[in-house]
Amino acid sequence: AQSVAQPEDQVNVAEGNPLTVKCTYSVSGNPYLFWYVQYPNRGLQFLLKYITGDNLVKGSYGFEAEFNKSQTSFHLKKPSALVSDSALYFCAVRGLGLTGGGNKLTFGTGTQLKVEL
Amino acid sequence: DADVTQTPRNRITKTGKRIMLECSQTKGHDRMYWYRQDPGLGLRLIYYSFDVKDINKGEISDGYSVSRQAQAKFSLSLESAIPNQTALYFCATSDRDRGNTGELFFGEGSRLTVL
């Protein structure tokens, strides 16, 4: 079975500073990894994904994530945080599912990012 | 208009009542999902459907049922609601062609409160 851990319930950062939201995973075989963002009273939005290739993945809104196979991690990063980045962030891993494929994602518990002036 | 529409957006009901949450999509995707979000627990998969004739249980299907009325419609039912089903429910879709990439498109959510 696959699982995702987001060890921090909340991350606080000052605007303009770099931010990191942590994620570690457990899955059989090669992982497909994802980050989603949820703004208040909204559904989740896809940010970025790692399937294969370059370990540094770039996504929407200036976010990027670094895949580290030896540490089984997929941390979300941004060089300079904005107040508008404040939201709930979810890491997810793709499992093989009962039918052997498809988008059967397992989500982490979420990390609330708060960016302050 | 939203590509994935959920109705109702908010519902308060009483224990034992039957509730249906509806989801419709205009994205033309064949795969649809129902998730439940609880604080501190993240999102958990209730049911998923890869096409109209394919319905699969997720990790927390007990107490729920679904119906895939058409490619664009996927409804979630609580036959006899109980308080621990109070949660935020999300419908999501994905494209078969990108079906293995994990990119899901979510609705805005349906907040259900069971008293």
Description:
The complex is a heterodimer of chains A (117) and B (115). Chain A has 117 residues and is mostly beta strands. Chain A is 0% helix and 50% strand. About 5% of the residues of chain A have low confidence. With 115 residues, chain B is mainly beta. Helix content of chain B is 0%, strand content 56%. In chain B, the strands form 2 sheets. In chain B, strands 2, 4, 5, 6, 9, 10 and 11 form a 7-stranded mixed beta sheet that branches. The mean pLDDT of chain B is 92. The chains are: A mainly beta (117), B mainly beta (115).
Short descriptors:
heterodimer, A: 117 residues, mainly beta, four-stranded antiparallel sheet, B: 115 residues, 0% helix
A few lines on this structure:
The complex is a heterodimer of chains A (117) and B (115). With 117 residues, chain A is mainly beta.
Radius of gyration of chain B using CA atoms only: 13 Å
List the secondary-structure elements of chain B in sequence, H or E. EEEEEEEEEEE
The helix tally of chain A amounts to 0
- Sheet with the most strands, sense and barrel status of chain A: 6 strands, mixed
Tally the beta strands of chain B: 11
Helix content of chain A: under 10%
List the SSEs and their pairings.
The complex is a heterodimer of chains A (117) and B (115).
Chain A: E1 3-5, E2 10-14, E3 19-21, E4 24-26, E5 33-38, E6 44-50, E7 56-58, E8 64-68, E9 73-78, E10 87-94, E11 105-107, E12 111-116
Parallel strand pairs in A: 2-12
Antiparallel strand pairs in A: 1-4, 3-9, 5-6, 5-10, 7-8, 8-9, 10-11, 10-12
Chain B: E1 4-7, E2 10-13, E3 19-25, E4 31-38, E5 42-51, E6 54-57, E7 65-70, E8 73-78, E9 87-94, E10 105-106, E11 110-114
Parallel strand pairs in B: 2-11
Antiparallel strand pairs in B: 1-3, 3-8, 4-5, 4-9, 5-6, 7-8, 9-10, 9-11
